[in-house]
């Protein structure tokens, strides 16, 4: 595996999460400017009208504190997803919204569920479990970093911690991310091969291959002693006698 091929910082790494945040904040600004409440377009479990919230709920937030708390982790996690899992990042984002939204619609309480926290839990769960599954040092380091920073989120998938939040959406996101880590395949991440001449302690004078070249770069057979000479088959002195029969 070539790290340069898989891990490249391109404009999409920051542009995609930036666009998502711009849409979120633009909708929030319109709500407050026009004094309207779009929460009714969120997920209302087990109702036909509530299905629209599967697509709309990640962009709807109740107040400034709600959207501010979701913005930073969403940007960081989406950036990490695209940088380290470029080939499947779009699947994780799009299917993550759909699957976690459907699960919330099925198991949620009879109230409107809004916010991008379900998607955040999808990203946390996917990045952690996928990194541990790959056994590749960079992705495992990313997994541990996510645990250190966002490990406390695990408590908010339980009902009794905070009844004001959608723990159903959090649980749906956690399960969805874990399932994606199993289903979505990534390249075989292996450490790049390091040849002998690439190592810092390489000594060309002791290398078996380099012994076949002299100081001028000419190929020589190092296995043949210098005093040994090849035979000249065209200078063999032999007497040939012929006889005839009558």
Helix content: 40-55%
Largest sheet geometry: none
Shape by Cα distribution: elongated
Structural class: mainly alpha
Q: What is Rg? A: 33 Å
What is the H/E order?
HHHHHHHH
The count of helical stretches stands at: 8
Q: Note the gap between the termini.
A: 83 Å
Total beta strand runs: 0
Mean pLDDT: 85
List the uncertain runs.
Answer: none
Tell me the β content. Answer: under 5%
Note the main attributes of this structure.
single chain; 246 residues; mainly alpha; 8 helices; 50% helix
Summarize, please.
It contains 8 helices and no strands.
Mind explaining what this structure looks like?
This protein has 246 residues and is mainly α. 50% of the residues lie in helices and 0% in strands.
Indicate the topology.
Elements: H1 3-6, H2 11-34, H3 53-56, H4 64-84, H5 86-107, H6 117-134, H7 137-150, H8 167-183
Helix pairs in contact: 2-4, 4-5, 4-6, 5-6, 5-8, 6-7, 6-8
């Amino acid at each position: 595996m070539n790290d340069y091929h898989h891990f490249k910082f391109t404009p999409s790494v920051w542009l995609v999460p930036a666009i998502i945040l711009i849409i979120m904040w633009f909708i929030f600004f319109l709500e407050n400017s026009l004094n309207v409440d779009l929460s009714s377009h969120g997920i209302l479990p087990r109702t036909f009208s509530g299905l629209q919230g599967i697509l709309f709920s990640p962009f709807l937030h109740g107040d400034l504190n709600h959207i501010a708390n979701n913005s930073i982790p969403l940007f960081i996690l989406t950036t990490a997803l695209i940088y380290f899992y470029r080939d499947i990042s779009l699947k994780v984002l799009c299917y993550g919204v759909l699957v976690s939204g459907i699960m919330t619609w099925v198991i949620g309480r009879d109230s409107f569920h809004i916010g991008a926290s379900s998607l955040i839990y999808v990203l946390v769960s996917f990045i952690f479990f996928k990194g541990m599954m790959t056994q590749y040092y960079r992705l495992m380091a990313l997994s541990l970093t996510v645990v250190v920073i966002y490990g406390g989120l695990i408590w908010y998938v339980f009902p009794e911690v905070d009844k004001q939040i959608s723990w159903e959406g959090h649980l749906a996101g956690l399960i969805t991310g874990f399932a994606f880590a199993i289903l979505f395949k990534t390249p075989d991440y292996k450490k790049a091969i390091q040849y002998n001449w690439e190592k810092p302690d390489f000594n060309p004078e002791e290398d078996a291959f380099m012994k076949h070249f002299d100081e001028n770069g000419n190929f020589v057979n190092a296995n043949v002693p210098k005093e040994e000479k090849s035979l000249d088959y065209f200078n063999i002195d032999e007497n040939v006698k012929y006889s005839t029969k009558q």
